[in-house]
Amino acid sequence: IRFNGTLDHPSIYRGPPSPEIDEAWQTIEDGEVMKISEEELIKSGFSTDSVKVPEELGGGYMASVEINHQLHCLNFLRKALHRDYYQFKTLEFTDHPQMVETHLNHCIEMLRQSLMCHSDVGVMPHRWVKNYPNPYPDFNVLHKCRSFDEVLQWTVDQQIPIMPPGYQLKPQEGEKIWDSPP
């Protein structure tokens, strides 16, 4: 896939805040909480002291995929860019100001780590462009991508069934309860 990196390329994910842009982001950001097997959990480098899904909801372990968190973070940064618009419309901004700042810094750090981990080495040639004194990078770079739609569908296929009204997920007997977030 060749990215369209043109500075003013129209996209449903960018521009001044609007219900259409918010809906587009909501569609790609909403990931399902899913269940994975003990084997998948261990293969992912985690121990079985993670949250267990009750048998009546299909068993396994509760999980989500990182792309959903990464898109949440990117969307949160987008909203912070337009904070006047989102201040009273978005749950993230209703926290104490210090918590909002902590959350934003968490998102920046998580995205930095992901970008550096994946270290995209796509080559961007530079071009001479009329009325620009310096060579200009061509951001329209070829990439080999996973199918986001297939990843999203996989999470939907693995999702924990909708819990009945009033159902409260609670630690099961013998489950570890952490003193603080990992």
UniProtKB/TrEMBL annotation:
Short name of one Pfam family: UstYa
Domain of life: Eukaryota
Pathways involved: Mycotoxin biosynthesis
Biological process, per Gene Ontology: mycotoxin biosynthetic process
InterPro entries, sorted: UstYa-like
Family, as annotated: Belongs to the ustYa family.
Name of the protein in its database record: Tat pathway signal sequence
Naturally occurring in which organism (per UniProt): Calycina marina
